[in-house]
Amino acid sequence: MRKLSILAIAISAAAAPFAFAQPQSSGVVGVAPGKAAMAQTVKATATVEAVDKATRSITLKLPNGNSRTVVADERVRNFDQIKAGDKVNVQYVEALTLELKKDGKAVVGRTESSGMQTAAKGDKPAAAAMREVVAVTDVVNVDPAKKIVSVKNKDGKIIDLNVRDPEQLKLIKKGDQVQATYTEAVAISVEPAAPAPKK
Fold first, then answer.
1. Residue 153 maps to a domain
2. pLDDT above 70: percentage of residues in the chain
3. Which residue, 172, 98, 97, 104, is CA-closest to 138?
4. Where does the pLDDT of residue 196 fall: very low under 50, low under 70, confident under 90, or very high at 90 and above?
5. What would the mean pLDDT of 10-18 be, rounded to a whole number?
6. Domain limits at 30?
């Protein structure tokens, strides 16, 4: 899994959940004629050790005991509410779908969209970010013996796809198109530290 390229709550790239030790992970794979899909969810938690309001730095203690310092940019609302002992919860989802377009007439190319939501003023610090990339390629060759489908992108680069399912391979011919949609999303929330026990 690669690092999330969006600045989520701008806790730098260090907020990516796979930077946390021992995250919980789950995956789903789906297949239909002319379609394939994969999705994976990763969840992780860290504890705030220290907050430097002057530099907007947050030191996080990871589940493996290591510490990591990250910086929250100005888009992180309610930064002043973050305190030592708070829990930072991260949930990351990525999904990829491939769809065969018979005798495709779509424009070969790549489009990208993204969005971000942050907590309302006064709420507990939280944010969610999403990015979606859609790419359309032309099928230029099908090699049933090698189970390879060659596609060409908008830059003229040829990419070989290994199609292991013979039933899927039978559906593809030169002149078709393959549309790939990649989506990644991350949600980050902060839970206040539990109150200290009364003496």
1. yes
2. 83
3. 104
4. low
5. 37
6. 13-191
Asked if 68 contacts 177 with a C-beta cutoff of 8 angstroms, the reply is: no
Phi first, then psi: what are they for 31, rounded to 5°? -140, 140
6 assigned to some structural domain: no
> pLDDT tens digit string along 144-177?
999 999 999 999 999 999 888 888 999 999 999 9
How many separate domains does the chain show?
A: 1
* The two three-digit tokens of residue 179, written as one number: 């549309």
Cα angle at 29 between 96 and 92, to 5 degrees?
55
Provide the Cα torsion 79, 5, 60, 76; round to 10°: 0
Per DSSP, the three-state class of 14 is helix
What whole-number distance in Å separates Cα of residue 32 and Cα of residue 86? 44
| Phi/psi of residue 21, nearest 5 degrees | -75, 145
Residue tagged 């109150």 (tokens): 195
pTM: predicted TM-score of the whole model, two decimal places = 0.70
**161 belongs to a structural domain:** yes
The whole-angstrom separation of Cα 39 and Cα 32 is 15
Question: 3-state SS of the chain: helix, strand, coil percent to 5?
Answer: 10, 55, 40
Query: Please, which residues have CB within 8 angstroms of residue 69's CB and are 6 or more apart in sequence?
Result: 57, 58, 59, 60
